[in-house]
Design a protein that fits this description.
With 93 residues, the protein is α+β, with helices and mostly antiparallel strands. It is 40% helix and 23% strand. Keywords: Membrane, Transmembrane, Transmembrane helix.
Length: 93
């Protein structure tokens, strides 16, 4: 949902900048277009998927008790959590 909102916002900035430029808004509209382009590019190409690890993480990591079957690789995956960083890791069993 947030991703869709950010993409919509970036398209609005791009379109508004382009419309303003065409309507005679001057070079000030280019900033809006650049902002929209950066926002769109960053959102579309952000990294979503982290491959499962095969080794248990080091110190500071706790097992959450969550397990699930990985639909892409077919194995059972355990979830580990680092309270300091808030990061989650997925380890194949």
């Amino acid at each position: 949902m947030l991703r869709s909102f950010v993409i919509g916002l970036s398209l609005l900035a791009l379109g508004g900048g382009l419309l303003g430029l065409v309507a005679g808004g001057g070079p000030g509209m280019i900033g809006s277009m650049i902002f929209g382009l950066f926002l769109l590019t960053g959102t579309v190409f952000e990294r979503h998927y982290h491959r499962n690890q095969r080794q248990i993480p080091g110190p500071g990591w706790e097992r959450t008790g969550e397990t699930f079957k990985d639909p892409t690789e077919g194995g059972v995956v355990e979830v580990w959590f680092n309270e300091t960083s808030g990061e989650r890791r997925y380890v194949e069993r």
